[in-house]
Automatic annotation (TrEMBL), chain A:
PROSITE patterns linked: ABC_TM1
TM stretches of this protein: 46-69, 108-129, 141-162, 305-325
Localization (cell): Cell membrane
Protein name as annotated: Carbohydrate ABC transporter permease
Source organism of the structure: Kitasatospora paranensis
Region (Disordered): 1-28
Keyword Transmembrane among UniProt keywords: yes
Recorded topology in the membrane: Multi-pass membrane protein
InterPro entries assigned to the protein according to its UniProt record, in alphabetical order: ABC_transporter_permease (IPR051393), MetI-like (IPR000515), MetI-like_sf (IPR035906)
Domain of life: Bacteria
Keyword set, alphabetical order: Cell membrane, Membrane, Transmembrane, Transmembrane helix, Transport
Domain ABC transmembrane type-1 intervals: 104-321
Family: Belongs to the binding-protein-dependent transport system permease family.
UniProtKB/TrEMBL annotation, chain B:
InterPro entries, sorted: Bact_solute-bd_prot1, SBP
Membrane-spanning segments: none
SUPFAM superfamilies: Periplasmic binding protein-like II
The entry's keywords: Signal
Gene3D superfamilies linked: Periplasmic binding protein-like II
Organism: Kitasatospora paranensis
Signal peptide as annotated in the record: 1-19
Origin superkingdom: Bacteria
Lineage, broadest ranks: Bacteria, Bacillati, Actinomycetota, Actinomycetes, Kitasatosporales
PANTHER family xref list: ARABINOSE-BINDING PROTEIN-RELATED, SUGAR BINDING SECRETED PROTEIN
Protein name as catalogued: ABC transporter substrate-binding protein
Amino acid sequence: MATSIRAAAEDGSAPTTAPRGPADAGPERSAWRSRLYRLDLKASPYAYIAPFFLCFAAFGLFPLIWTGWLSLHRVDLLNPDVMDWRGVDNYTRLWDTDQFWTALRNTFTIGVISTVPQLLMALGLAHLLNYRMHGRGFLRVAILAPYATSIAAATLVFVQLFNPDYGMINWLLSMIGIDRTDWYADTWPSQIAVSTIVTWRWTGYNALIYLAAMQAVPKDLYEAASLDGATRWQQFTKVTIPSIRPTILFTIIVSTIGATQLFGEPMLFGGGVGVSGGSAHQFQTLSLYMYELGWPSRQLGRASAVAWTMLLILLLVGAVQMLIARRNRTKLGG
Amino acid sequence: MRTTSRPRRAAVLATSALAASALLLTACSSSGTKSNSDGSSAASGEKVTLTVGDFGTFGYKEAGLYDEYMAAHPNIKIEANTTQDGQQYWDALTTHLASGSGLADIQAVEVGYIAQATGTLGDKFTDLGKVDGVNASAWLPWKSKQATTAKGSLIGLGTDIGPMAVCYRKDLFQQAGLPTDRAEVAKLWAGDWSKFVDAGKQYQAKAPSGTFFTDSASGLFNAALSAESTQYSDDSGKLVYKDSAGVKKAWDIAVSASQAKISAGLRQFQDPWNAAFANAKFATVVCPSWMTGIISKYSGDSGKGKWDIAAPPVASNWGGAFLTVPKAGKHQKEAAALAAWLTAPEQQAKVFTKVGNLPSTTAGLDLPAVQSAKLDFFGDTPTGQIFAAAAKGIKPAPIGEQDGTVKTIITDNGILDIEEHGTDPAKAWANVTKAVDDKVNG
């Protein structure tokens, strides 16, 4: 069919009678084709990634907005269909609640004392693994093992280790003359204990990410550096670190997000008082406070307000990190 | 070759996954519609799996009741799912009730939460009063009343009650120069829980090193409060804990125990507390009948024969539970029959002799098996007599919907805070009221 029509059109006949002249049919078709081609070039990528965004809209964006809507209401977990309008009361009430501020402070302190040593240790480990040595493959897999362990299993072991009366940590500390430390009840010890679990789990994971980035650093940079007489430490600080700066930034952002959402470790570490983060909320994080409001207290609206506050805090922290990163980059002239 | 086989394999995988999920969906929906039509999907002879969700130690498995029931009903298979921590169990249960999924056919409810179950959650449970063979008057009157909704439906069948006594270690009492005979011991504190604290000071003065008179001030708080006629809520179910004379008195007793350092400062039902039984870290634990099972479980062989039971300062009830049948369950009829059987006097007596949960039915309390019962672990102590006698003196107080929440905050964030951090009691109480306002007033 198509060929016959084209043949008929090309047969010539009157260019004036046809609405579109056969003379410019050729160029127009090719223009249409090139437009199609350009459309394909520009639109196809969007089509290919559309499934993700559709899923995200359904399972990410909608819950996000719905949570925001909930946070403006009073909602009982047991009757989620009944919603009373509250306006911003849930948020102003957070502002006036001591427990919220305690949780915010704990989230920050636990985040810092787990993220900072974690990333520093990961950097060191990655640097060591980057050397040529025997059993490198095995060691690389081995440092990922904690990441593959479930939080529940790992935390249970740490709870035993940190037991103030029968735990191994206090026993070891007593050998060097340090008195009994109450790793459950006291603020700093309990936060350090929780951070230890987090650090233990994520150090290897971050080390592997650093290692991957380090392997992409051109070898001739190191050769040049060693020709210039740079020690290994100088090579690490002057070549490796600047080369993997974007990767470091990436891990900082990911770890910050993880630290802000810290939930499982303190929850399980606290045992029966895990939901409230200890008897004086000494290690209650924002996520735990959200859970305490939403589930045991059945106040979905207020829990949603905490969730949104957490999101805003994350965006704020993210923005600050971006700013610092950009300033660093301009300082370096990159 | 390789290029052609890969998409084909993917296609096979995709289709099989689709088919599987379609199967799953139809399987779900068909069983769903079946159960909605008449509340029970089992035709005669069809194999039915009943799930039972409970917390702590209900003793059904230990007493071999599940096996017995399955042997008598070949078409029924019972699967039990036990959570250790009662608070965690309840949090999960309320979530499941709200969403109507993830529920077992039978769900246990603790007495502290029964008001929530009969109130807000009332229409999510089946009325067991209409089940064949169930007669609400078989239970102690106050027990059935607690599980009856305002509309008059009985949503829970009483399992056990918790008449209280005091369990004590004879060996530690002797070392501290206190009497060891149970009648003599009871005289130490007869009449008032504050005398119990005084006895504790006496013990602590000559205590074996590293031991404490009692396990936790929170346990003492529960014990002292249980004896009061006004607790957290008034008759209408309104929270009155701030001005309640009972709460004030129990709080003061717990604080004085903590300040006199006669308490080991442990949180009950947690690992360190469990471990402390084996290590003989404390000499007494306030002991509702169900606690005897816990003591024998965690003290192990090293504690056998060393524990005895004395009468409490004041008779009261702590704990006890109910079996409910959620409406969302697939086999409500079979579940109700099982719940009725499990809570019948004979079965309650078997559970008592095995794990110490005292019957909540009048007939069960009078059974010779209960009256003459002795628990192996406690030697010749006539446990059945002691607890059945304590049961007679119980005067129940009104329970409100928020009692469980308030109790958790007072014990875990109030008293435990004083014990762990030496917080000033006035400040701890202020924290409690703040926390309750935060959690209760949505």
